[in-house]
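Narrative of activities, Objective 1.

The group set out to show that a structural description can be obtained from nothing but a protein's sequence at a throughput compatible with the screening campaign. Below is one input-output pair from the validation batch, recorded exactly as produced.
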Amino acid sequence: MYIDGDFHSGLAYCKKCGYNKKVMYLKRERCPVCHSYVEPVPDKYIDQYDLFPDDETEELFIEECVKSSPEFDPELFAHWEEIYQEYCDRMDAITAQGEALLNGTNKGNKYGVRCPYCNATNVRKISVLSKAGSVGLFGVFAAGKVISQWHCTHCGSDF
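Output recorded for this entry:
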């Protein structure tokens, strides 16, 4: 029986859907498929590399541990790999969105313009009013902004 806080290196599985993966616990994990707690695979089913030694042993494990569990759900068991793939795809999309946000490419623009300095796509057109205000405030020192057409909201440069 798994006790919260135990350290375990090996395989873990879900008693409800049969999901399994190689893990290293420092705390209790939930199954990404059905959100039940995962348990360590008993040592008698795994080899020294923390894997099922053969298909026969894996089938025996599924029969004795997964399918005999009172929490077992045959419908989830039949589709856990598909559900897990959908979960992985969602996590990849979230990761890509986060990376795009960090890189400044999370938003396109209707002009198809990229910043030449950081390659970000979240740029905006510098308005005539903004240019006039810069000239009014800074005079000749606003020349850089006056000749620029675009402002990058990621790195702050004008180009």
